[in-house]
């Protein structure tokens, strides 16, 4: 072989070697190292604050797991806070340009208030209002902009009973008001019964739920909304008659127990000290055998409270893109997952079907769809008046003869525009 050919061969080998090395740098270890570094940088943690603990959090945890499975670069850190505590913590932190979490579940009216002060991100690009229960976004919409998204909702449909208890004592659900009163009297005569209805209490909300059920049955959703807006006074004859002719006579007859801490009341009712318990649908996840649950709404009920858990994305989140991605998931597919657990909740996203529900909630979901939905009265008004409402109802429960004083106080303390 000539010298020129030998040198030409070496030159080709050299060029091939350079090409191989270059190829390795472009598609091999260097690129892999860069990708790995990028992945590490993209691994973030979103903080979520919600009201759930215990069994309720176990249900919500399934939603978190599903989101993390779809987004392996995002981890969720969850903390439990009471809304009452957040109402004092958040305004101070927001004013300082800080937030304790990227997603915060809170009262709808509070979210709207924070939005007016410029602390909350808009969600109009995240959710489609047409896909939700009508009116569900009104509470968290300010000047046409959505600031709070709805998660699943608790319904407050009526008085729960144990089917086995009714069968044992030959009791039947009533179809008229007179039959309802007769049922309470029949239950009162059963040996060992302390009262036909146990009155759950906490800071006051379980009793307020009972009261709203009476207003919605005998006044409808329109009256409830007018009370929320302050368009109708509590001393108005229509409102007063609901208390005077329906609720107060039952209190005077001893059909309701005195207020009892609501979780303790669950145990007492379940073991048979009481026959009926007015509670939200989350009760289905708190009893030993949900299949033993029956439900009695007041005969002729026109509407029921649908109380969603709203959440917001504070403007001070350090991960706005990922936080909005989580917000979209919670408001849509996360609902489908949640209603399939023992959460006892109902979907506010209309894409969820009856087949998606946990079995004990399917009948409840069907009932709720047949009546008009209404906002929670005290949650909608909020503020100091809400606490007044709770306190005055507790007073009414133990002293029904103070009805005039209670209604007068509710009017006097109602927020003025």
From TrEMBL:
Transmembrane segments: none
Pfam families xrefs: SBP_bac_1
Entry-linked InterPro entries: Bact_solute-bd_prot1, SBP
UniProt keyword annotations, A-Z: Transport
Gene3D superfamilies given in the database record: Periplasmic binding protein-like II
PANTHER family for this protein: ARABINOSE-BINDING PROTEIN-RELATED, OSMOPROTECTIVE COMPOUNDS-BINDING PROTEIN GGTB
Protein family per UniProt: Belongs to the bacterial solute-binding protein 1 family.
Name assigned to this protein: ABC transporter substrate-binding protein
Organism, scientific name: Thermococcus argininiproducens
């Amino acid at each position: 072989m000539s010298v020129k050919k030998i040198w030409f061969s070496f030159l080709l080998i050299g060029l091939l070697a350079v090409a191989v090395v270059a190829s390795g740098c472009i598609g091999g270890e260097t690129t892999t190292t860069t990708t790995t570094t990028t992945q590490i940088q993209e691994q973030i943690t979103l903080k979520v604050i919600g009201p759930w603990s215990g069994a309720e959090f176990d249900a919500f945890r399934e939603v978190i797991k599903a989101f993390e499975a779809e987004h392996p670069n995002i981890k969720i850190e969850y903390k439990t806070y009471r809304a009452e505590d957040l109402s004092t913590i958040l305004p101070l932190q927001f004013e300082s340009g800080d937030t304790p979490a990227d997603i915060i579940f809170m009262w709808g009216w509070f979210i709207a208030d924070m939005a007016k002060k410029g602390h909350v991100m808009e969600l109009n690009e995240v959710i489609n209002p047409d896909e939700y229960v009508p009116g569900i976004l009104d509470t968290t919409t300010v000047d046409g902009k959505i600031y709070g998204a709805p998660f699943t909702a608790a319904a407050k449909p009526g008085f729960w009973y144990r089917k086995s208890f009714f069968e044992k004592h030959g009791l039947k659900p009533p179809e008229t008001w007179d039959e309802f009163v007769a049922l309470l009297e029949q239950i009162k005569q059963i040996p060992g019964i302390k009262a036909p209805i146990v009155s759950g209490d906490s800071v006051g909300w379980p009793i307020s739920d009972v009261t709203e059920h009476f207003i919605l049955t005998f006044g409808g959703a329109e009256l409830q909304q007018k009370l929320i807006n302050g368009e109708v006074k509590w001393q108005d004859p229509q409102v007063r008659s609901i208390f005077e002719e329906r609720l107060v006579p039952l209190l005077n007859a001893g059909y309701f127990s005195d207020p009892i801490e609501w979780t303790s009341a669950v145990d007492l009712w379940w073991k048979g000290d009481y026959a009926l318990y007015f509670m939200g649908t989350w009760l289905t996840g708190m009893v030993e055998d949900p299949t033993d649950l029956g439900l009695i709404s007041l005969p002729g009920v026109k509407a029921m409270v649908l109380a969603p858990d709203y959440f917001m994305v504070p403007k001070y989140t350090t991960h706005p893109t990922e936080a909005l991605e989580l917000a979209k998931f919670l408001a849509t597919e996360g609902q489908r997952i949640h209603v399939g657990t023992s959460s006892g909740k109902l979907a506010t996203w209309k894409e969820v079907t009856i087949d998606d529900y946990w079995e004990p909630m399917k009948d409840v979901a069907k009932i709720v769809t047949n009546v008009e939905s209404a906002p929670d009265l005290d949650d909608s008004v909020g503020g100091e008046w809400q606490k007044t409402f709770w306190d005055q109802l507790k007073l009414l429960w133990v002293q029904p003869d103070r009805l005039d004083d209670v209604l007068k106080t509710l009017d006097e303390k109602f927020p003025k525009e």
